[in-house]
Amino acid sequence: SSLSIPSPIAEYEQLIRPYDGLRLSSTLLSGITEDELLDQPDAEFIIPGFLEAIRSLNVIGHNVAFDLEGG
Questions:
Q1: Rounded to whole angstroms, how far apart are CA atoms 36 and 49?
Q2: Would you say 67 and 46 are in contact if contact means Cβ atoms under 8 Å apart?
Q3: What is the pLDDT of residues 29-43, one digit of tens each?
Q4: Helical residues (DSSP H) of 1-71, grouped into ranges
Q5: What pLDDT, on the 0 to 100 scale, is given for residue 71?
Q6: d(CA 32, CA 23)
Q7: Any idea of the CA torsion for 54, 59, 61, 67, to the nearest 10 degrees?
Q8: How high is the pLDDT of residue 70?
Q9: pTM value surpassing 0.85
Q10: CA-CA distance, 17 to 35, in Å (whole number)?
């Protein structure tokens, strides 16, 4: 038997300016620099709309524990 994986119904991407600056380890991991985040919104501006948009969806993440620990 084979597993049929449907295409994503939506994708979301948004950079967020960190409150206490960007760690070097984050830049080395992602390639994102402090300069790229200067004009990005704070998390408190983005999160409410994002949560409303995904309220009725099943969300799947990869290595979420890493993100929850603060990477």
A1: 22
A2: no
A3: 999 999 999 999 999
A4: 24-30, 34-37, 43-54, 64-68
A5: 53
A6: 10
A7: 40
A8: 66
A9: no
A10: 10
